[in-house]
Design a protein that fits this description.
Its main location: endoplasmic reticulum. Helix content is 28%, strand content 21%. It contains four helices and nine strands, in the order H-H-E-E-E-H-H-E-E-E-E-E-E. The protein is elongated. The mean pLDDT is 79. The structure holds 2-acetamido-2-deoxy-beta-D-glucopyranose.
């Protein structure tokens, strides 16, 4: 019995040694090794790199992730906000913006949008911000949808900001109309439109309304526009509103 145990231990020991000796890389004798500062530096660099990788992987692991779920909205009575900030290259006197929905309520029930005469051309400081937003949005929209995951993970919060005030005021008459504000909508089908001509508030039609543009000449029409904001609901990080940062110049009146 005793003997058997001893041989078993011996056997085990020899096996372990064999594993220890097993090495795919030939060992170099200590005497042949030479220490160099380059090697040391490389060791330090790789050590730091490993530390950094461990750190970033841990941060990545702990950080939050966005998971999107789509569920039907059955809260029919709730209202939905729409946020608008659009500049059209026509003076406010020639532009009308409103909402028509299937409940056929009057547009002013939803709130009012402010109309502000302005110049279509942006001041340099505004141009810079608008271009940034435009590039960023078109990049996300057209090229790398997944980039946004990384941006949000880094707590990058993209809530589009108001344009800064003009750094210089042009010395010419206003040539555009900025329509901005928020409206509260019913959750039913409807349409929001901005078009030439003021709404005839005094003319009530059983369904819909008309925009009166009888006193405008063809030259007055210019559907060139810029969208700073067009979103639904409360501002929320991580949602890219595809039309924000859009600018369309129309060279011919009546066309877009
Ligand atoms: C409309 O306005 C824009 C900006 O001011 C201008 O570039 C464009 O040429 C205009 N189009 C017409 C048809 O007048």
């Amino acid at each position: 019995m005793e003997k058997e145990n001893v041989t078993l231990l011996k056997y085990r020991g020899s096996k372990l040694n064999k594993v220890k000796e097993l090495d795919f890389f030939p060992k170099v004798e200590e005497t042949f090794k030479q220490k160099s500062s380059v090697g040391g530096t490389l060791s330090i660099i790789s050590f730091l790199l490993i530390l950094w990788l461990i750190y970033s992987e841990t941060v990545y692991f702990w950080d939050s992730k966005f998971v999107f779920k789509f569920i039907p909205d059955n809260d029919y009575d709730a209202k939905l906000g729409i946020n608008v900030d659009i500049t059209v290259a026509m003076p406010c006197a020639n532009v009308g913006a409103d909402i028509l929905d299937s409940t056929n309520q009057h547009a002013y029930k939803f709130g009012t949008l402010e109309e502000e005469d302005t110049w279509f051309e942006l001041a340099p400081n505004q141009r810079r911000q608008f271009d940034n937003e435009r590039h960023f949005n078109s990049y996300l929209r057209e090229e790398y949808h997944a980039v946004k995951d990384i941006l949000w993970r880094n707590r990058y919060i993209h809530i589009s900001q108001e344009l800064p005030p003009r750094s210089e005021i042009p010395n010419r008459p206003y040539d555009a109309c900025r329509i901005h504000g928020s409206l509260i909508l019913n959750k039913v089908s409807g349409n929001f439109h901005i078009t030439a001509g003021k709404t005839g508030k005094s003319i009530s039609l059983p369904r819909g309304h008309i925009h009166i543009s009888a006193f405008m000449s063809d030259r007055d029409y210019n559907f060139t526009h810029r969208i700073n904001r067009l979103s639904f609901g409360e501002p929320s990080p991580g949602i890219v509103h595809p039309l924000e940062g859009d600018e369309t110049i129309s060279e011919e009146s009546m066309y877009l």
